[in-house]
Write the structure tokens for this entry.
Amino acid sequence: MDFYLTAILQSLCFAGIALGIFISMKIFKIPDITTDGSYTLGAVITGTLLSHKLPVLATYPIIMISGAVAGALTGLIHTKLKVNALLSGIIVMTGLYSINLTILGRSNLPLLDVETVYGFTNWSTNSILNSLFLLLIFTSLLISIVGYLLKTDFGLAMRATGNSETMIRALGVNTDRMKIIGLAISNSLVATSGFLMGQLQGFVDISMGIGIVIVGLGSVIIAETIINWLNITSVWFSLLIVVFGAVIFQLVLAFTLSVGIDATLLKLVTSVFVLLIVSLPRISFNKAV
Amino acid sequence: MIRIENLTKRFNPGKPNETIALNNISLQINKGEFVVIVGANGSGKSTLLNAISGSLLVSSGELFIENEKVTNLPEHHRSQWIARVFQNPLSGTASELTILENFRLASIRTRPKTLRIGMNSSFTNQVKEKISSLGMGLEDKVHLPIGALSGGQRQALTILMSVMDELKILLLDEPSAALDPRSAEMVMKITQELIDTHALTAILITHNIKDAWQYGNRIIQMNEGKIIRDHNSTQKPNITSSDIFNWFL
């Protein structure tokens, strides 16, 4: 039971990545893989600041800003220098690796006797439940904030930017600026995941972000399937399902581990699973046609 | 309203495939004029419209709107005067957004898009009322994604959206070219009504000779980046559609 509970905790940590990828991929239609770098960036800054005894509450704004800067950088390269979005992300992600290593000063850092965000909820004797409460509150906050943002006039302009650029430019929106802000918000959410995950697992590692983008992609694709299936139009509900997608994703991985698949093969299982959920609808549609 | 001085637009300057899309054009369009532009493909009509809207920046020359120099002003700043209707109904609306959301964005065309929720019930009622004036029964579908509508319906809504916020200049780039004859006629009628009620200055590009003859109070013919004919409001009523047809021979 605790095994699956831990998987749920992890998936709630990944809610930020899922929401971030939802913004970059579904709203802006930009495949942004700055994620790998900005997730680790969030984690290593968290680790470094916390081990220097900075309070958690003061750390979090710094994490959000650092993620936003990474995303904005990708956005700037993409819009102002007209570099392909995927390549822009790769460039920033690659650069971030060295920056992360410089910040951390070594390849990993344990967070043993530091005050973490999970110390705030002290309602149960079971520490896993306490972490669950905190993550549930945190995730609800993220969903509320992103949901509200997408409902505002600014959020509408964001959604229209990814949908019909000619239209929204004629309606007075600077689409370049919009994409830069969008990627900043997205990577700020991703860095939040690094912030939560580093503290949950009790250490930060320079390579913890490698391939993490697939967690976000998988969650969003699972969510998209459910959203299309249930014909959901509400923004709030869509975001909730995106987070739900992250939970399903981690539970499936946990299940494959529990049936005895070698942990070495975890990434392979992940990629095959994502391939399956991407292609399943098409395979069944082909029969209908 | 619009003053164009010696406007030139070159594509691929200095390369073997250099083309001069606008060749030293000067043009003055007064308030309340409804200008129809005709011309063969590649004559520079769309380039002229894109230069006015700001989606293309010109190579040389000056452009003024209400005596303000806008030559280097980007498109999203010119939206304070200009609204556009595109040939492709998909370009003028955001398919994944609902009708209401599309109208909300159109209603703040000249204003910044802030962090407040603008779609309240009074706004919804206002939009429903406007849409019902089209008589297409779309007022009950404002919560549907606009992509669920037909091209004609979308184009009609795009035109209506343009007057949701204060508007001076309406640019129409073959708005009815992608539509069936009945929808095309309906779209042109709605356009004429809105131009009349809001006293708009409008520019219409069209390949439809009947439309060119029927609409507008000034007609311009372009060829190879130059204006070769310009008939004002006193001359236009005397031009027949066969005259316009003969211009193309």
Observations:
- The domain at 2-288 of chain A is CATH 1.10.3470 (ABC transporter involved in vitamin B12 uptake, BtuC).
- The longest helix of chain A spans residues 175-201.
